[in-house]
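Dear V.,

Thank you for sending over the compound details. I've combined the ligand you provided, flavin mononucleotide, with the protein sequence from our construct and run the structure prediction for the complex. I'm sharing the raw inputs here so there's no ambiguity about protonation or stereochemistry in the SMILES, which I know was a concern on your side last time.
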Amino acid sequence: MSLPYILILYYSRHGSVAEMAKYIARGVKKQTAIDVKVRQVPDVATTTTSLSPSIPEEGVPYCTLDELAECSGLILGSPSYFGSIASPLKFFLDQTSTLWMTGKLIDKPASVFTSGSSMHGGHEMCLQALATPLFHHGMIIQSQSYKAKELMQTQTGGTPYGASHLASSTNNTELSNDESALCEIQGYRLAKLVMQLNK
Ligand SMILES: Cc1cc2nc3c(=O)[nH]c(=O)nc-3n(C[C@H](O)[C@H](O)[C@H](O)COP(=O)(O)O)c2cc1C
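Below is the predicted structure of the protein with flavin mononucleotide bound, written out as structure tokens.
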């Protein structure tokens, strides 16, 4: 029988959010009784007649609605765009009304992560925006805990609402030690919660 899995789902244009997802996945994998699937969403075009190839040219596979419906936990990530969710991920989420109607995600644990170019450019706002549709889906939103010393000491990203990365104006995809540790802890803790709830 296949293991329950945590879905790490994101959009990333320049690679920072994708880099964060790798550390989060590493944290999830520390829980051996749970699997991880890492998925992205395709870009959206300015005209809706243009379709992306079904297989991405680079990076992890595109997410299907079934993969979202069948996950045991979800970790959702987006770059901060004007303090909110990037439209490709919002576009994907806006196609999940059948999952909402059938209650597929109710009582499943979830957490959120983001990357932004400026320190006060809205990391927290974006994390709250990411959590909002998950509340509508009836999910259990897990915070980051101050038990993680990195959350108090970070000079870059990292919030109690979820992991974040300060990419700066150069779009630096390399995470600071505190940021990567918080990503790993976030993955680990969500996996632990999923296991506790599925005992
Ligand atoms: C349309 C647009 C809006 C953006 N808005 C913000 C913002 O409000 N705050 C911020 O800190 N960065 C903002 N950025 C920068 C991205 O959030 C940042 O470069 C992020 O690290 C990109 O993640 P990625 O490398 O995964 O694509 C914006 C970028 C774009 C293209």
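A first observation: The first strand starts at residue 5 and ends at 10.

Warm regards,
I. M.
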